[in-house]
Amino acid sequence: MGIMSGYHLQLAGAEVTFLVRPQRAEKLSRPQLLYSYDDVSVQPFSGYRVLSDVTEVGDRAYDYIIVTLDGASARSAEGTAMLSDLGNAVRDTSAVVIIGGIGLGLRRHCLDTLGIDEERVISGALSLLAHQVASANLPIHPPTDPALLAQADLAYRTLPTGSFTVEDRFPAVATRFKALYDACSVSHCDIVDHRQFPAQVAIVFPVFAACELMGWPPAAQFNDHKDTWNLAVDAVREVVSLDEYRPAGQPTGSEFLTHMMAAAEEQALPLDVNAFNAFHHGGKVAQQDLELLQDHVSAGEREGKPMVALRQLIAELTAFRQQAA
Q1: What integer is the mean pLDDT of 61-77?
Q2: Pairwise CA distance, residues 88 & 58, whole Å
Q3: How far apart are CA 61 and CA 38, in angstroms?
Q4: What pLDDT, on a 0 to 100 scale, did the predictor assign at position 55?
Q5: Residue ranges in 183-253 assigned as alpha helix (H)
Q6: Under a CB-based contact definition with an 8 Å cutoff, are residues 205 and 289 in contact?
Q7: Which DSSP state fits 300?
Q8: Residue 248 clears pLDDT 80, i.e. is over it
Q9: How distant, in Å, are the alpha carbons of 35, 79, 141, 176, 302 from that of 155?
């Protein structure tokens, strides 16, 4: 998320700084090569500044800070300390913080930890698909150029929603960020209803869990695994019934969810989205995804909701992973 967001913002004319762990700083010391599935090209990304100590952030002013920690990392001792130090560094500035991670109640946790004015903290998400090239052995579909792809550090595919999404909790803030992002001219930022945004993100995680159990099939084959798929649909309904998501009125039926996944398959080509999800959600962030589902169960318990389907889905996924290990 950081690399791709920084790349597009730099194309838009912004100066970009990365705050990363020391070992990551070494990797960013050279230009990052980015392969685009959109136009079969490799572009270098350089000219950014790299910091590995949060205390260095305060040496200059920033318009926007995108926090890419996932929910678990943001709540860890290290993540909480970093957010607190970041808040101290920018408290007396006008910098807007965009929370790009995923987690139940994550914006509130970050807002409380940062200790800055509420209208300076909004949620956002990366709307394109991106993966490391060296560690992701995905199927090649035309017109992908395997030789060019192999040269790159990261590969990405832009979807119709654009490259980035922000919520409209504070419309003027979202509009200003969109204007900056859209100046990159190769993609755009989408603004979504803040009442819809959390639910739109949350519903995909029971679906990913079911897809892992089903072997990451295309959406057209979901009904070949009726018990698992129906369990996922019921789990999605339970998730959106939680207080955090209920105002959204998010569609949850089997037909809607199947269409959502089928549309993603078509729009992502030539990137194979099912193989991408297997690599990303079935591997790279598998544990974070499982923890998010467990957080939803805990939230249901607090609200007096049994979350029967989600509990069963988690149990089946846990047993499946144990057998595969």
Answers
A1: 93
A2: 9
A3: 34
A4: 87
A5: 197-202, 204-214, 226-240
A6: yes
A7: H
A8: no
A9: 4, 27, 14, 28, 41
Q: What are the angstrom distances between the C-alpha of 318 and each of 104, 111, 216, 230, 275?
A: 20, 32, 16, 18, 21
Biggest CA pair distance of the chain:
58
d(CA 128, CA 309): 30
| CA 214, chain centre distance (Å) | 23
Please, what is the Cα angle at 307 between 302 and 311, to 5 degrees? Answer: 115
Q: How far is CA 78 from CA 29, 59, 101, 284, 313, in A?
A: 24, 22, 15, 20, 31
Give the C-alpha separation, 291 to 260, whole Å: 23
- Reading the block at residue 234, the tokens are 């019921």
Is residue 308 very low, low, confident or very high in pLDDT (cuts 50, 70, 90)? very high
Backbone angles phi, psi at 183, to 5 degrees: -70, -10
3-state secondary structure of 105: coil
143 cis-preceded (ω within 30 degrees of 0): yes
Q: Count CA atoms within 13 Å of residue 249 on its CB side.
A: 1
pLDDT tens, residue by residue, 164-193 = 999 999 999 999 999 999 999 999 999 999
Rounded to whole angstroms, the Cα distance separating 128 from 280 reads 13
Q: Is the pLDDT of residue 161 over 90?
A: no
Res 258: pLDDT: 98
pTM for this predicted structure? 0.94
Q: 43 - beta bridge partners?
A: 34
Three-state SS at 72: helix
Q: Burial level of 294, CB count in 10 A (0-12/13-18/19+)?
A: middle
Cα 154 to Cα 17: distance, rounded to the nearest angstrom: 18
DSSP reduced 3-state for 99: strand
Torsion, CA 11, CA 13, CA 15, CA 18, rounded to 10 = -30
* N-to-C CA span, the chain: 29
